[in-house]
Amino acid sequence: MSRIQLLPEHVASQVAAGEVVERPAAVVKELVENSIDAKATRIEVLTRRGGVSLIQVTDNGIGMDRDDALLCLERHATSKIRTGTDLASIHTLGFRGEAIPSIASVSRFRLSTREHDALVGTEILVNGGRMETVRDGGDAPGTQIEVRSLFFNLPARRKFLRTESTEASHVDHQLQLLALGHPSISFVHIQDDRLVYQLAPAVSLLDRIRDLNGPAFCKELLPVVPYETEGLQISGYIGKAGMSRSSRQQQLSFLNGRAIENITISKGLREGYHTALMKGQHPVCFLFIRIDPEAVDVNVHPAKREVRFRSPGEIREAVLQTVKRTLESDRANWSAQFTPSASSLLPSSHRHPGPDAPSTAPVGCPPHPSVQKDSKTESDQHNLPLPIQPRPALVLPDSRHQPSPSPFAPAVPSQAADLTPPAPSSHDSEGRTNKESLSPPAPVPDTFRFLGVLGKLYVLIENSSGLVLVDQHAAHERILYEEMQRRMETQGVPSQRLLLPITLQLGPRDADWITRHQEMLERAGIALEHFGGGSFKVDALPTFIRSEDPTQLLHDIIDDLRDTNTQSARLRLGEDMIAKTVCRHAVKANDTLREPELAKLVENLLACELPYCCPHGRPTMIQIGYLELEKKFGRKA
Q1: Are 350 and 359 in contact (CB under 8 A)?
Q2: Gap between the Cα atoms of 504 and 555, Å rounded
Q3: Using N-to-C axis directions, what is the helix angle for 472-491 and 595-606, rounded to 10°?
Q4: Has domain 9-204 been given CATH number 3.30.450.20?
Q5: Is the overall model pTM greater than 0.85, yes or no?
Q6: Which residues pair with 239 in a beta bridge?
Q7: What is the pLDDT of residue 362?
Q8: Intervals of the chain under pLDDT 50
Q9: What is the CATH number of domain 389-493+574-637?
């Protein structure tokens, strides 16, 4: 007797369903995608008990006639592709023709559909893959699908489902992805007879994000600077520098309207943010990529979550540059709060107007505290619990250029004056900065005032928006870090010869990568010589690299550089070491800085490319607006 037998049709359907229908959220995804492909403008999803008891999806799409309704229950029956060549250019969300028959084989299934110009529709009942009833239906034009008792005939699969609340959260997440990917469609979500949300068609993506996450969340997003080349467009929103999550839950990428997960995009995002994110944190983004369907393969996984790009390096570079340009544009807008324009300069006689002088605050901003009338008399102020010592307005000095002689001496950006003197004696045994070398600041407008230092670490500054707290250690770290990076770009990576060369024996893939990028490695300070096969001799390394196991260190360096973009790999080499070096040389928490030194520190920080975070991704400054302060004091609800 033959040991190989043909499986019965219903068993084969259940096997296929295991790949497509993982949980109730997968059912919702497949059914809603069909509704979107059917040109629906309104989709309503009703679930009970996390979708295990009932999933009902109703749309106002084009509907189906009876023949199509019957055919859609057959495996690999679809209206979206015709030939094998169509797989190379997918324009719809669904195309396999597996979802409906797979879902019907593991549930009690009901399909009701009617075309808009038809007098009567079609209703079909399927029980565990067996068709029971086909009859006329009288539902509204469009399609309604009910899935009851999911996995009732597969108890083993049902045991692996999580709690009802967990499954309900997965359903909600899947629906939010679909709603974000198609903001022009109205979505209604009802869970256990409770309305979760009712989303009207949105005019823009930001409106849909606001509907789902709230206005406060949207304030922390930046509109992506559009990226467009032939066959590739990138748009959407990303989180500001410092806005991150401990998971990729809100790192959302959409390819031609389809929510995807792709390591190429994730790496591009990470490289784009670079030091704007702390280690272990992930960016927040709503990234929309439009690409020629022929340049991507979506037929990789049955659930269609993974895709393959024809040119992944091009996609990663495009994402990297998009994120980088967006953060740079935010840096220009952000620094405007601290750098007043020439039109705002006021004569010194007008810097401290009397109590009766009119307010010069811009429209829509609260009056500057220095121009608000105070009802307390001078004698009343002497009775306050803490004495008030008025501090004169300190302002930013003019920038100067003092290059530091050593590429790793504590320094500030080349376009600004050095916070530390070039002489070696500018640091004590603990690496503290000699702060006596700063020249007095030059006068500028009093829209930027130093108020003091809190805890010998946080510099308190007043600007037109409210209160700014600057971490002096993190700020100095960013200044020194960017100066070292600039010198590496212009002067190259300093290297030193090894007394005893190191021999590397690598596998075929690593050896091929090194051979193709040997010139880039040499510019990065690593001198190699190929001995043939997978053997390499290394006789020079960057001067700042120290390790007890150079061979393992070289393997780690090669892995890191291979994961980064080749255009930026040389500049990324040894960044952790640089960050540690500047951390040791930056001003410490207990270092007391005078007001001229604080002014110079802030000026140099504002001249940085990425002033709002240190090399480790921690914020350098925090803005507390007047509105937030008024809420804290109960002045506003």
Answers
A1: no
A2: 9
A3: 50
A4: no
A5: no
A6: 221
A7: 33
A8: 340-446, 570
A9: 3.30.1540.20
